[in-house]
Structures
1.
Amino acid sequence: MREPRFWQAPRAGEIRIMPRLLAPAALLYGFAGRLRKRFATPERAPVPVICIGNMTVGGTGKTPLALTLASRLVGQGEKLHFLSRGYGGSEKGPLRVDLAKHSAEDVGDEPLLLAAVAPTWISADRAEGAAAAVLDGASLVMMDDGLQNTTIEKDFSILVIDAAAGLGNGRLLPAGPLRERMDDALSRVGAVVIIGRGHAADGLAARARARAIPAFRAILRAAPAPELDGLPVLAFAGIGRPEKFYATLRELHADIVATEDFPDHHAFTEREALNLLVRARDLNATPVTTEKDLARLRNAPAGSARAQLRDAAKTISVRALIDDFASFERLLQDQIRLARQRAAKRAAQAG
């Protein structure tokens, strides 16, 4: 879906009617969410569960952060498995993602990116997915999204916020972009990571630290792409905030001659793919897109316009860089160690 403009923070003196009209629905949404959390009985996995989530609709950078942290942990010997709902896919799971077999239509786009780094499970029931990962040898489960999920106990949750977008107009769905109030989210997280540079960053960090929750700053950084330097490109993206992708391309000195925005997790049609190819040809430009968008074209039928677009398009790899990574990593390792101590104590008591 595309974010409605009224979800954004209003300009000075601006009066918006839609958030007020939708306020009763937002009140019901918030009440239902709190009720669900109050009466939930989450299951606990026998291995540490780390959740990287957000509290707003739209892209915040949580998947690049998950990929960065997972790569580090895997390099240190962790048998890390990702756990995702598989948004946009038809499979309900628990199912381990097979890059040679599954498409975005099966498991969603983000799990395809995660599976390139570590074993990845999609499961509508996160507790069942975690159990399947443990049976498959996982020593640690990392959830990409799921902060609001009530079926599984998390040992350490990281709240990711986009600095530029902040909390939008500060209202709950559908009146605004919030899945829950910030104070409710902060009551369940052990760290906050604010990605990017924006007007909201300092205030958000201060709110976290006022509750003794460490707040870290991070940026999204693309891997070097010298082939894009000066290259005329048609940039297209179906992500939460396409402008972030375009800004990254400008940092790489690509010559953006045109852009095409699509809704988040958009499944490209043959007509759309053909239109992009024709427009790129007419502009004498190279189509460039995000890793997530390319993943949705991964298993396009041979000879189709989608397959041609996949083969013609270039992409860039983006990861999150945390300013004080040493402190963040110490915090993360401490939480993993404590989670294992708690698990060992429960096992001893049960035995």
Note: Residues 179 and 277 are 37 Å apart (CA to CA).
2.
Amino acid sequence: MVSESGISFEDFVSCDDGVMTAGTLSEDEIIDSVAQKNDINDLRYIEDVNSTCAPWVSIKEARTALNTLRNFIEQTSNSEEEFSALYRLDNAIDREQPNYLKQKKITDFF
């Protein structure tokens, strides 16, 4: 194949002899290259953090979603297992209420 294209084997093998594969950097060049890599890595980290954050869901939105799911389960299934899972989710939402763990006074009931 080399002889058909008109290029000798020696030219083919030595075509990249002049390409620089290693070199010596000055201290300033090393510092600049490290600083540029850190800047790029910082930007990638910030982009990763921003892209992986889910939007905040309020307690009201969670309750609405759970009620929608409860309606769906009631329409499609009567499995006790699914209703107990909904009950556990309902309790988890209750625990997130600000006054859930606050001890009540006896006068609050009158």
Note: Residues 24-53 form one domain.
3.
Amino acid sequence: MRALIQKVQHAKVVVEQQTTGEIQTGLLVFLGISKDDNFEIGKKLIEKLLKYRVFDDEQGKMGWNISQAQGSILLVSQFTLMARTQKGLRPDFGDAMPPQEAKVLYEQLIEYTKQQNIKVETGIFGADMKVHLINDGPVTFNLEVTN
């Protein structure tokens, strides 16, 4: 499972000219789910994400996690993160979890994240989404968790 995270001042997802999720200070999280992933792996990723220190503390260093920064999460499904790109000129999505299964796991992870007392907004799984953001820094990290 992969998460491309960006520290943002503002981010929103628009589907068919309707905003489906919007946050101010927080993390925009693009989530890629592989065919080998499961809920336990997802929990490990969410727990790492929530503890990851990318927000400025009182000394101006990356010392605070999202809770300490009183931030929110915008969680967006992103199967293209699972693409194999080493060979050829076209991405290979063979490692991505099939959409029906990935949607169930994505929704379980949304609920799990909400249970951690973090404000969570989302996109719409499988939709053509337009993501608007103001990256703060810019600060962008790729988190990956496997078995």
Note: The longest helix spans residues 99-114.
4.
Amino acid sequence: MTEPFGTRLAAAMRRHGPLCAGIDPHRSLIESWGLTYDVGGLERFALTCVEAFAGRVAAVKPQSAFFEVFGSRGVAVLERVLAELRESGTVTILDAKRGDIGSTMDAYAQAYLAPTAPSPADALTISPFLGYEALRPAIDLAGQSGRGVFVLALTSNLEGPSVQHARRGDESVAGSIVRGAAADNAAARARGHLGHVGLVVGATVGPAVAELGLDLGATAAPVLAPGFGAQGGDVAALERTFGSARGQVLASSSREILAAGPEPHRLIDAVARSADVLTQWAR
């Protein structure tokens, strides 16, 4: 990679709008397209998404689990998806939420972020709930290889707050994650750039960012905001959640866009509509 991840992502967001299109080949979506729920249907679904999204959105986020469910043949389809998006110059974020300790975390980092990985993504989602520093192998390798990570911070599932809002002394768990990202992005922030350590903050977490006293704007972190669209996240929800940090936000939409398929031109239209709305909001 010739440029840092944050720099490349910021350029893609300026060019295409701050939209990340998800590729979530869930059984119900595949079948709603009139496809069979097998490897053949998976491949047709995923490659149609590639055709529609490549070169048209800031980033594309395949959900690894929906490929892994088909075993090695499903993973082979995922690798092809990542390779074709990479060839098109489209930023990829692999949603795999890996998180472990020691040599195991290092192996995950090598599998997804190393130049020698079978089909590396530009960025990987990772889970910090064994401790932020347990993610150090992935954070450091991503920085060294020009790639990025998105660390879960505030998620929109009902169980999330019981962990993420919990406090040790004056600092919440989410706050410690935000602090860690800010420290790892300090050099990029000093240059006025986005860093390589992003944060995942749900588009529908409402006032949680403010209530926990999180200053996302000071982190130089790209913020991946899942839940835009069908999950209830709209521009008003984004504004309530992110406010002045809007310029760092990459909103992710999957089901709403994918429901427009299977015709590629309808997917393209859905992407264009969402990207336009988000661009107007981010200004």
Note: Residues 56 and 192 are 26 Å apart (CA to CA).
